[in-house]
Amino acid sequence: MNTQQVKNMDHDYIGNTYKRYDVVFEHGAGSYLYDKDGKKYLDFFSGIAVNALGHNNSAINAAIAKQAKKFIHLSNHFLSETQAELAKMIVDNSFGTKVFFVNTGSEANEVAMKLARKWGLLHKNGANKIVSFYNSFHGRTLAALTATAQEKFHKYLNPVSPGFVYAKFNDLNDLVSKIDNSTAAVLIEPVQAEGGIFTPEPGFLEGLRAVCDKNNILLIYDEVQSGLGRLGKKFGYDVYGVKPDIMTLAKSIGGGIPLSVVVIDKKLEEIYTYGDHGTTMGGNPVACAAGLVVLKTVLKPAFLREVREKGAYIISQIKKWHNPKILEIRGAGLLIGLQLEKGAAEMVSAALKAGLIINVTGTETIRIEPPLNIKKADIDKGLAILKKVMA
Ligand SMILES: Cc1ncc(COP(=O)(O)O)c(C=O)c1O
């Protein structure tokens, strides 16, 4: 099929919920993608932070093929070697002592919130309220979207899931005004990603932790986008030095295959018991095999140091442009946002035409999140395109 034929079939047979670019990619290699016409694109988007190790990664492919030759799926009725190994690796590298495997970021957040509500029932007189933050994004399922405190997502959702209240990000006073004895948990992205790459101000997460501790409230970090090296440390909470009680991971953890994880603190180990959580596909053996490769690579100190260096380099280079269209540069590690006043979508289209994949998020925020293992020379090539496009 040529690009036009794919476009026609997409139009005729796929529900119209995405605004898609007219490109059909044929294959990828490292930080590059190649379309049907042989055109080469540098990927500064990584499939929304999924392809942390780039495209067509030989180690991930080998792990997938090896596992697929054994079996692709069993069921969670049987012990799983790949799950056990991946769970141990996550626990060994995080605050958590146990994990639950699911499939997507939204689902991981659902599991985290359900767990918090059961904890509230057992340990806090039935407390079930969850506080989340304006401008957040937690996924598209009913409760995750209710937790996503952006009006535009609630328009057709009513009645939204009960038991949610919203506070202002980076505003402890507002948070305190939103909690009471019925609050079970606070759910937050350490860095708000989809909302436009907003980082926590110094002291905010420390203050948040203190408020939670003082009021016996669980702290849940949605690290679906910020976790696993994206911010230049193992997890986002390592960047800010404030641990949660529950953390959700997804996106890059399955090496491109759907996989997500809920990581819990020791004090929550007894909350979920037999039958409280389940999924047919969660912790799929192939996804976990790929996940082992991702973790073994990404969690190495030298790899993480390079992510920090590359992120700092990108920001320093962009600052040198002194481009008045860029009002602010935000971010950490390789999750970077360029705040514009207007024209972000047009710039993304122009960049694509020039062979660079970037994205718009939030309100006129250009998001840069290349594969974590992108080469310095490729960063320079991408920045050269971006500079021209933004001139
Ligand atoms: C922070 C955060 N949480 C949750 C989600 C939802 O993940 P998924 O699309 O895998 O359900 C996303 C997706 O962008 C996200 O960025």
Description:
With 391 residues, the chain is an alpha/beta fold. The protein folds into 2 domains: 3-57 and 301-390, Aspartate Aminotransferase, domain 1, CATH 3.90.1150.10; 71-298, Type I PLP-dependent aspartate aminotransferase-like (Major domain) (Aspartate Aminotransferase, domain 2, 3-Layer(aba) Sandwich). It is built from 14 helices and 15 strands. A 7-stranded mixed sheet has the order 4-10-9-8-7-5-6, with helices on both faces. Helix 12 (301-321) runs parallel beside helix 14 (376-390). The longest helix has 21 residues, at 301-321. The chain is globular, with a radius of gyration of 21 Å. It starts with a helix and ends with a helix. It binds pyridoxal-5'-phosphate (PLP). Pyridoxal-5'-phosphate is lined by residues 48, 104-106, 109, 137-139, 189, 193-194, 222, 224-225, 250. Pyridoxal-5'-phosphate binds at residues 48, 104-106, 109, 137-139, 189, 193-194, 222, 224-225, 250.
